[in-house]
Amino acid sequence: MLMTIVGILIVLWLLGFLVFKVTGALIHILLVLAVIVGLVQLFRGKRGL
Fold it and tell me: Is residue 6, in this structure, part of any structural domain at all?
């Protein structure tokens, strides 16, 4: 679930970087958030059921 959100944010960043020049700053902020969330997920690891 979390990795899906990270993937969507990266796609939105690429779209914003290539298409929407005005909202570039917002998209870059979203990318930074996606990277942070991805790193937190990576270091936490998955918990067993």
Answer: yes
Residues of the chain with pLDDT under 70: 20-24, 27, 46-49
Structure tokens that stand for 7 in this block: 């993937």
- From CA 49, how far away is CA 44, in angstroms rounded? 15
Question: What range defines the domain where residue 17 resides?
Answer: 2-43
| Amino acid in the structure at residue 7 | G
In a domain, residue 31? The reply is: yes
CA distance 11 to 27: 10
User: Three-state SS string across 13-43, please?
Assistant: HHHHHHCCCCCHHHHHHHHHHHHHHHHHHHH
Give the global pTM: 0.49
